[in-house]
């Protein structure tokens, strides 16, 4: 007994929405400042800090590695430049795709660059860092108007959803849409049928193996954790699968930039991470997560808030 501090089972680094571009600072549609060149400095500081920690098993990047305003003739070089920075981490780095990644490069170029182990252009996968834990990475732009060829069935399905749900001529605008219907904009996306079945089978398998699960995706999965205009199109379908299993403890996301934390009615913890892109020069946003048997603890740097995910 006494005051011995329990060691985590393992720890891993996190960062979201670096959205680097070699262009002057700008603002979001809502007027929030964006520091496109500074974000690579945030990433460099993150990698240094993670390496100094010395005991992080891996790093997860929550997507949007390069910004959509990056000049398209620089997209490939900028993505490679950022991947090189991530690769300075002394351990594996797991990426996922966000909408800004897809504004820059098509899936067939992105997936090998980011070493995403998907098949047929799909970018969802899972891995088990320790016997008791499974990490599931979702592809939130499986059904999307960006990233697939224009005549691809998934593009066509996405455009149909947008036409039915969003009357605006600019499909990136949620104007006039109410509450969670605001999510039906082009910069969000959906999880397709095949991926939903895959998610169900992975969670079933994790459950049979008594593994706890952390689900990661670029796009937030609960209206409680993010802006209603920054949600997965079919978050309800995804969550109804997740809620079938007690094994899922936490859902991590990026995309919404301001950050958020919410525990849903089934006791699943949702955490959307503060964006690296929105750090004024000299400030930072990254962290690492300590994983214990019955809780997680996010240790944030600067603009990334500390969070204890207690009592599962």
TrEMBL record:
Catalytic activity annotation: ADP-D-ribose + H2O = D-ribose 5-phosphate + AMP + 2 H(+); CDP-glycerol + H2O = sn-glycerol 3-phosphate + CMP + 2 H(+); CDP-choline + H2O = phosphocholine + CMP + 2 H(+)
Gene3D superfamilies, A to Z: 3.60.21.10
Pfam families with a match to the protein in the record: Metallophos
KW Zinc-finger (keyword) present: no
Keyword terms: Hydrolase, Metal-binding, Zinc
Domain Calcineurin-like phosphoesterase: start-end pairs: 12-258
InterPro entries: Calcineurin-like_PHP, Metallo-depent_PP-like, MPP_ADPRM
Family of the protein in this entry: Belongs to the ADPRibase-Mn family.
This protein's name: Manganese-dependent ADP-ribose/CDP-alcohol diphosphatase
Organism: Camelina sativa (False flax)
């Amino acid at each position: 007994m006494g005051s011995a501090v329990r060691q985590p089972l393992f720890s891993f680094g996190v960062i979201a929405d670096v959205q680097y571009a070699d262009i002057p600072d700008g603002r979001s549609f809502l007027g929030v400042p964006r520091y496109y060149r500074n974000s690579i400095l945030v990433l460099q500081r993150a990698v240094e800090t993670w390496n100094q920690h010395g005991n992080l098993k891996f790093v997860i990047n929550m997507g949007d590695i390069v910004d959509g305003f990056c000049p398209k003739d620089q997209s490939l070089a900028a993505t490679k430049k950022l991947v090189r920075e991530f690769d300075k981490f002394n351990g594996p780095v797991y990426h996922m795709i966000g909408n800004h990644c897809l504004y820059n490069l098509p899936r067939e170029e992105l997936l090998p660059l980011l070493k995403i182990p998907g098949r047929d252009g799909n970018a969802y996968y899972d891995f088990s860092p320790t016997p008791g834990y499974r990490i599931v990475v979702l592809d939130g732009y499986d059904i999307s108007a960006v990233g697939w060829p224009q005549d691809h069935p998934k593009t066509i399905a996405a455009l149909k959803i947008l036409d039915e749900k969003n009357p605006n001529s600019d499909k990136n605008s949620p104007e006039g849409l109410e509450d969670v219907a605001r999510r039906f904009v082009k910069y969000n996306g959906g999880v397709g049928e095949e991926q939903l079945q895959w998610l169900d089978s992975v969670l079933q398998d994790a459950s049979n193996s008594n593994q706890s699960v952390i689900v990661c995706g670029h796009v937030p999965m609960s209206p409680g954790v993010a802006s209603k205009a920054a949600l997965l199109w079919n978050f309800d379908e995804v969550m109804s699968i997740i809620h079938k299993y007690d094994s899922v403890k936490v859902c991590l996301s990026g995309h919404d930039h301001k950050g958020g934390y919410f525990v849903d009615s089934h006791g699943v913890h949702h955490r959307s991470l503060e964006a690296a892109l929105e750090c004024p020069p000299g400030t930072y946003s990254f962290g690492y997560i300590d994983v214990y048997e019955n809780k997680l603890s996010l240790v944030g740097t600067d603009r990334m808030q500390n969070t204890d995910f207690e009592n599962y």
